[in-house]
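Dear Dr. L.,

I hope this message finds you well. Following up on our conversation about the binding site, I have prepared a predicted three-dimensional model of the protein together with 4AD. For your records, I am including the exact sequence and ligand specification that went into the calculation, followed by the structure tokens. Please feel free to forward this to your student if that is useful.
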Amino acid sequence: MAPDSSRALIKDLLDSPEPKVGVLVKGWVRTRRDSKDFSFIELNDGSSLPSLQVLVDREAQGYEALKDLTTGAAVSVEGDLVESRGQGQKWELLAKTLTLVGPSGADYPLQKKRHTDEYLRGIAHLRPRTNKYGALLRLRSETAFAIHQFFRDQGFFYVQTPIITGSDAEGAGEMFQVTTVKGPDPDPTFKNDFFGRYAALTVSGQLEAELLALALDRVYVFGPAFRAENSNTARHAAEFWMVEPEAAFMDLAGDMDLAEAMIKSVVRFVLKNRATDLALFDSFVEPGLLKRLNVLAESSYPRVPYAEAIKILSGAAKKFEFAPVWGADLATEHERFLCEEEFKGPIIVYDYPKAIKSFYMRNNDDGQTVAAMDVLAPKVGELIGGSQREERLDLLQDRMAELSLNPEPYWWYLDSRRWGSVPHAGFGLGFERFLMTLTGIANIRDVIPFPRTPKSLEF
Ligand code: 4AD
Ligand code: MG
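The resulting structure of the complex is given below.
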């Protein structure tokens, strides 16, 4: 059954410039209020945050179904859109025909009251029907669309890279193994396994994206990534989505410019197109959110060399749990201090020590640092990680040897540096981290419909 064209979406009715007769809507009951001769139903079909008020009186056909229209029930209503006599809404629907599609009951877990995030996580199959998660899911969709739009406008091609892979794109050893062999003993030779070799879920599409950028000039991946990091934090998921543009003939400065332009473009787009949903987050999740998003959209992001960031942190009056020292990675507390207290907005830190970064990053002439950059944002810390890639074969091989990375599974990656290698760069935006930034939601489990985290694989 395709969505029938005779049916109206509530978002369009609420925006209607004029009354309408003979309107058909379908959705789920949020609440019902009864008075002596009529009842009000708040009906929501997911198309918008506000619900449609439906007025049902004894004249309505199917009036006897009213008693079953409890919170959560699915109904179909046909009637006239008329100006509401009550306060709080412009329009209401005067029901003529009422049909119960799917009953609910008193045991429906989403009764009309505010539930905690923890409670809602346990009923992730139902939480999309709440105001907050409905708003989040609409925003998630719009954000994805805005990202595609941005890259398309910049001449980037959308490419798909493998999800099952034989090489660790980050060289960090956090992969989920993929196997068809059952039983307790993994076979180290993989001879009975599906691919006849080690296979795993990808941690990043970057390496393949580089190959495609060296053919199409500008590409981006927008796909899932999987990491078996055991960090049970509010910012890490085992399965998340990453946006990974990669461009030939681009250096680190261009990479930083691209990241900043992308964020700004997407923030402006959602501020314009999902204003009502964002206003909910501003009211109920992070007061001041809209102001912060305006800074994200309009300020220019300072470029801070890693060494300078360490200097600022070492000189800060604040006591950190981890001492900021040159050579160590920035902890979230450092990232947040820099954004929230020192620069009061997003920043881009670049030229990190090579020892803490991945094997593929381009060596700087100082011999100590690589051409890496991270975009750090208030609240979430690292939003983007990117770099100019090492395009010089000998330096890339030396670095892999230094890190004891077996070059064999990367033979094709090394080949890309043999014929027509060019300077190139790219980055990875954590899509969920971006949504946390856009909504003020503090836990990554609450910006993805069905999160996967250590010891948690429900739904
Ligand atoms: O900094 P990362 O590890 O960079 C890469 O994977 C590169 N290959 C990207 C590239 O240059 N093409 O990850 C990129 C971003 C991080 O900045 C973070 O926002 C997000 O991905 N991320 C995670 N998000 C949720 N859960 C996790 N476990 C994440 N790990 C990384
Ligand atoms: Mg990173």
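In brief: The CA atoms of residues 248 and 424 lie 4 Å apart.

With kind regards,
A. P.
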